[in-house]
Amino acid sequence: MCITCDNQMQSTFWLDLTHRLLEQFTIDDFLSCLQQQLTIHPSLCQVALLINTSQSLHWHGVTPASQGINDSFLLENGPLHQIQTTHQPVQLTANAYQQRYPALYQAIELPDFHYYVGLPLANGQGGYHLCELFSQQPFEPIELLRHTLSIAMAHLQSHVQLRSEQQQLCQQRDDFHLLVNVTNSVLAQRDINQVIKQIAQEIHRYFAIDAITITLPAQRAQQIISYSTFFYHDQQINDCQQQALDAHTPSKQVFTSAKSCVYTLRAHAPANERSAADQKLFELWPAPSHQLGLIPISFAGKVCGVLQIAHGPVQGFADNKLKLLEQIAERVGIAIDNARAYQQIKGLKEKLVHENHYLSEQIDQMDHQFNQIIGRSSAIGEVLKQIEIVAKTNCSVLLLGETGTGKELFAKAIHQLSPRAKQRMVKMNCAAMPAGLLESDLFGHEKGAFTGASNSRIGRFELAHESSLFLDEIGDMPIELQPKLLRVLQEKEFERVGGNKLINVDVRLIAATNRDLKLMVEDKTFRSDLFYRLNVFPVRLPPLRERLEDIPTLVKFFTFKAARRLGREINSIPANVLQQLQQHPWPGNVRELENVVERAVLLSPGRELCLPSELNLQGAFNPAPINRPVVAPLDMQQGHQYQQIIQALKATNGIVAGPRGAAQKLGIKRTTLLSRMKRLGIDKQAVLEEQF
Q1: Which InterPro entries match (predicted)?
Q2: What is the mean pLDDT of residues 156-172?
Q3: Roughly how many angstroms between the first and final C-alpha of the chain, as a whole number?
Q4: CA separation for the pair 36, 41 (Å, rounded)
């Protein structure tokens, strides 16, 4: 009866042990439960488990294993190797265990025991776990305990594996949702600044990262632009700077290798290894060092930027976090490329609209322009030689000449002979545009830059990118706008009115003026540095009075052009008409000649060109003598000044000062005008008598 009761108690014990072990879901709980259940055995000292997986070995015991015990140590210095080979339990006395495994005996803090039992537990992967029992007396029954533990360990292993797979699936689901949210968030933005700002906010929200910097190549070679965002005490700090891309910076290494890395940046690192964003990181969170995560931003198989992240409080970066950020960086590359493409399309669309508007203006003016350079005189030949030389270069050209000498026509010739001829030349008259709108027309403006700026607009410099820009009457440009023009010519970059973004352009400038820029520099009405920048290759266009032999050819051309346009038939030009026209001084030069010929065509009664008496050319050719002071012969430059002052005095009826005076019209001071009149021997009264 006692034996039966004992057997029932044993069966109940093993059944209860099995049930309790099957309810455990972690190794530590399993070991604690086993230790607690086996306390029925009075001689038991300790139970330990050596978990053998395909990746590594793990020792579990009530007393923690000492540091420095690795897989190879356990295999070489413990009983697991014997169990793996024989598949049989190992039973040893304490002395035998110490003699056979001395290194393990010393490395692991073992209880005071007399007997050791090692039970092999199949792990389902062709290997075995090891359950170790340390006791004061021999432990029985070994096989029944082995069988029970094998079943419980198999169940526990399956549960752990399923839970691990479930956690992986949940993590993958969360990562997928994160990628979808980030992708939708950043792709919805079209402005690159908004894209980068949104990326920084999303990364900070999901990863609690406080410092995010996105580095992109700038338009200039060996230059980068960095967009940095810092989240400091619930405050978002945006910082955008541009700097040279140094070969020693970590970002440069990622650009080259296209691989992510974790870089430790120390506070005493050399300056060439620290960007402005790194400096800001140490300012906000002082520390001996910061750990940076550097991730390449790629698109279409090419690195187009670098994502740099750092925690404010010093922390590390887990591998799974970097891998997820690498996937985010791929979406960032797509978003940045889309934003750039959108901006480029938007810019091209604006440029097309402005080009269409500009071309419409030019078509309206086409009837009043020359379609070729006409003339075979030596003066014109010399000019054409200079144009042929300078046209093939990219240097600035300054066309000097009186009004009506065809400066725009020669500017077109320079452009057509240059490598930029495939692009349309953009032109602008600085004197025809109000000073307040001149800057906007030249450089463009952003929306809301000033009253009436309801939309952004690109300027002439952007229209002339990779082409030529012709600025006529450059001497009339306001002096306050001249420094900005000088900056464009020197740095090849500018900002729109009301904007803060640098725009790089490649423009070949052709300027023209009928004013004496040297004297304007002396009078402080034109900047000397801009003058020297424009005066790289000056070309003087001869006035019509210096190329009288070209007048017959010009008259024939203008006659047939005007006749065709006005619906008249003129097929003859008398020689005396040509002689009369050659005797005129033509202060208005070729433009004045064209206007006279057009009027003559309109008033000619037949098919022969006539100069009607209404034109009063004869009186103009033989003016009555006027008593003028005797002055020395004027050189070419003084002659030009002389003509300008005479015309200004005639236009203002001899008024020198005041808002309607000749000085205001010439753009100089009253005292300057009076001194020049005295030097050139100009008598105001004599000029007025000559006029009337």
Answers
A1: AAA+_ATPase, AAA_lid_NorR, GAF, GAF-like_dom_sf, Homeodomain-like_sf, P-loop_NTPase, Sigma_54_int, Sigma_54_int_dom_ATP-bd_1
A2: 77
A3: 156
A4: 10
Element (H, E) at 365: helix 319-365
User: What superfamily in CATH does domain 188-341 come from?
Assistant: GAF domain (3.30.450.40)
Q: 271, exposed or middle or buried, with CB in 10 Å at 0-12, 13-18, 19+?
A: exposed
Q: Which pLDDT does position 69 carry in this prediction?
A: 59
In this structure, the chain runs to a length of 692
Residue 195 CA from chain centroid, whole number: 13
Contacts within 8 Å (CB) and 24+ apart, 196-205: 196/227, 196/229, 196/336, 197/229, 197/238, 199/328, 199/332, 199/335, 200/229, 201/229, 201/236, 202/328, 203/309, 203/325, 203/328, 204/229, 204/231
Instruction: Check residue 51 and report its DSSP letter.
Output: E
Kindly report the CATH number that applies to the domain delimited by 16-162. Answer: 3.30.450.80
Share of the chain above pLDDT 90, in %: 5
| C-beta separation of 631 from 638 below 8 A | no
Prediction pTM value: 0.47
H helix or E strand, kind and range, residue 149: helix 142-187
Kindly write down the DSSP assignment for every residue of 378-416, as one continuous string: HHHHHHHHHHHHHHTS-S-EEEE--TTS-HHHHHHHHHH
Q: 291-327 burial by CB neighbour count: b if 16+ within 10 A, else e?
A: bbbbbbbbbeeebbbbbbbbbbeeeebeeeebebbbb
Residue range 2-23: mean pLDDT, rounded = 72
- With bands split at pLDDT 50, 70 and 90, how would you rate the model's confidence at 64? low
Class of domain 544-621: mainly alpha
